[in-house]
Amino acid sequence: MGSRSIFTIDPENLRTVFSTNFAHWGVESIRLRPMEPFCGRGFLTVDGERWQHSRKVFQPSFDRKAMADFSDLEVYLQKMMQSIPDDNSTVDMQPLLSSLYLDTTTLFLFGESFGQLSGVDAYGDVSRAFDEAMFGCGKRIALGPLGFLARSKKWLNACQKTRLFADKYVEKALSYRDSVTKPSTKAEKNVLLYSMAKQLDDKEQLRNSVLQAFQVAQSTTSLLVENVLWLASKHSGVWQTLRKEVLEQIPDSALPTYDQLQRMSQLRKVITEGERNRNHWNH
Questions:
Q1: How far apart are CA 151 and CA 143, in angstroms?
Q2: H helix runs in 111-235, sequence order
Q3: What are phi and psi of 69, to 5 degrees?
Q4: Are 72 and 63 in contact, with CB atoms under 8 Å apart?
């Protein structure tokens, strides 16, 4: 509201904004003021050197070795599969996939899962508060210069509840860091907050970073997978080709390796097309 918007799908425009001339296209003037009461300053809300520093603290958790460990995903995937009846009845996969990726995302970010696939609702109020806070931020951004008007008590309470939740895990991460006196030979689980705590002492920055990471991760993958499954169900030929490729690359029941996934060209095409056509989910 009150500002000019330009929409483009031209590849050269996108390349300029996101790559070759990235420094000249920022988000701070649009996002910081509306979102700061919720998640402060971080890679989603600032530009320039502060953005670069915010991104840098994430890097250790996203190297190839860390991202190639699918053991946690496998555990929760099997939990989800157990929730699917084997009597050929119709199943709504959307809530199951949402729970799957919420559980794995919170495990990765905080070191503990929300446990939704297990039927536990211990974090339901936090999840709802997070959704309310996100919705309020979106409303404030959409209102532009009038965003200050969208500052209800309900929204502020949701922001506060979410920050307090994150603060608890920031304290745990710092305590764990301080308790480790020497490097362990045992492989550690890849937990983003614990990795950031090795690099930062600032509790507020740690909280802002993990909350902003949660915004990016929350529902993103589940929505993509839901859309891919929905589209694949309408194109049996594509599904059969994809199934054949997966069985050829991973002939046994072992977890796939990073290299195996990289070799699956059909899988990459299906995921890319699912992302490109994600709006079809709404039709």
A1: 12
A2: 124-143, 153-179, 192-197, 203-217, 220-233
A3: -90, 105
A4: no
34 phi, psi to nearest 5 deg = -70, -30
**Look-up: residue for tokens 């492989």?**
187
Mean pLDDT per 10-residue segment, the chain (283 residues): 78 85 86 96 92 90 85 93 90 92 94 89 88 95 91 96 96 92 65 94 96 90 91 92 92 84 92 75 43
Distance separating alpha carbons of residues 58 and 67, to the nearest angstrom = 12
CA 276 to chain centre: 18
Distance, CA of 210 to CA of 193 (rounded, Å): 7
Q: Name, in order, each residue with C-beta under 8 angstroms of 240's C-beta and a sequence gap of 6 or more.
A: none
Pair 147, 33: CB distance under 8 Å: yes
Report the Cα 112 to chain-centroid distance in Å: 15
Stated pTM of the model: 0.86
Instruction: Determine the angle formed by the axes of helices 153-179 and 28-39, rounding to 10 degrees.
Output: 80
Q: Are 118 and 94 in contact (CB under 8 A)?
A: no
Provide the token pair at 118.
Answer: 């297990």
Phi first, then psi: give them for residue 220, nearest 5 degrees: -60, -50
Helix (H) or strand (E) holding 80: helix 71-82
Exposed e or buried b for every residue in 35-58, given b needs 16+ CB within 10 A?
Answer: bbbbbbbbbbbbbeeebeebeebb
Cα separation, 219 vs 101, whole angstroms = 7
Residues of 246-272 as b/e, b for ≥16 C-beta within 10 angstroms? beebeeeeeebeeeeeeebeebeebbe
